[in-house]
Amino acid sequence: MNPLIRLIPPFLVRFFARPYVAGDSLDLAMGAARSLWKQRGLMATLDLLAEDIHQPQQADDNLKTYLRMVDAVAACSDIGPEGRPTLSLKPSSYTTDPLQEGGAAKGSLQAITTIVEAAARKNVSLSIDMESRHWTDFTLDALRQLYEAGHRHVGCVLQTRLHRTERDIEALPKGMRVRLVIGIYREPEDVALMQKPAMKQRMLDYAARLLKAGHYVEFASHDEAVVRRFVDEVVPAAGAAPDRFEVQMLYGVPRERLLAELRQRGVRCRLYVPFANGWGMAVQYLRRRLDEYPAMMWLVTKNLLRIG
Questions:
Q1: Pairing state of beta strands 154-159 and 177-181?
Q2: Which DSSP symbol is given to 179?
Q3: CA distance linking residue 117 with residue 291, whole number of Å
């Protein structure tokens, strides 16, 4: 990690993280999801901030938390089926043998399978998130195994800046739900695009391809121009009905006006709502994100000041 990122005091990191993290407990995250749906008609997907773990007990605790998340979502009858949150999980949260350090991700697939099976019993949808390039094959192989086992409630995430994504789209099981993101992990030039305009155009191109192939597309972007092009150009050209796609953004990013407009037009919108079991994990999460994407500090400052 960049030494300068390590030097940022925890209280300052927490200050920057607070608008983008629902809190330090599952109850607070569920409360945020309820408020989003009841007050603004926005759906949510819940994510536990628990990457980069080092102790077996952490992996076990993360698994237990996700099983509690499944139960909490299944029990939220006051929201109703349409507004009920989904879950998002990262494979690195369940292993102390990380692939990016040359490990074999021991225990991760077993933990994911346990969560997926519990979610199937409770009719809870979830997505397996995509991490750095070291995890791509592992994650897609896990998705295929789960899909072949009949778990149609599981979705995937693809990063459009990776050069390999075009091939990965072609290999997806038919009809799989796909969250499409640019991706913020630090990757070498031979693996990923470096130019933002090209990344965004790829995102639109891949969204069109996925819709035409019959996938449900979760288009995740804060770029208003790109979101409008997706809704106004890509969706009509693909002939996609409103129940075939949604727009996603991060919790706390100030796009209220755009989200309200999309909702008035009947577009499904969902916010990615992270929380932690204690602020220590939330601080670690933001430090890693700042290291992977240093420009985030400026973006966070802009959002806090509501400028630009």
A1: parallel
A2: E
A3: 34
Task: Return the structure tokens found at 26.
Answer: 């599952």
Which residue, chain included where needed, has tokens 């802009």?
Answer: 302
135: CB partners within 8 A, 6+ apart: 91, 92, 99, 100, 105
Alpha carbon 54 to its chain's center: 22
Average pLDDT, the chain: 91
* CB-count burial class (<10 Å; 0-12, 13-18, 19+) for 122: middle
280/90: higher pLDDT: 90
65 Cβ contact partners less than 8 Å away, ≥ 6 residues apart: 26, 48, 50, 277
Residue 211: which pLDDT band, with cuts at 50, 70 and 90?
Answer: very high
**pLDDT single digits (tens) 63-91:** 999 999 999 999 998 988 889 999 999 99
How sure is the predictor about 215, in pLDDT bands with cuts at 50, 70 and 90?
very high
Q: What is the pLDDT of residue 308?
A: 40
Query: In Å, what is the CA distance from 199 to each residue of 173, 185, 203, 207, 250?
Result: 24, 13, 6, 12, 19
| CATH assignment of 22-275, among 3.20.20.220, 3.30.360.10, 3.90.190.10, 3.10.310.40 | 3.20.20.220
Residue 14: Cβ within 10 Å count? 15
Query: Could you tell me which of 30, 82, 9 has the C-alpha nearest to residue 17?
Result: 9
Tens-digit pLDDT profile for residues 291-301: 655 655 665 66
Q: In whole angstroms, how far apart are CA 77 and each of 48, 69, 208, 233, 238? A: 22, 14, 35, 36, 35
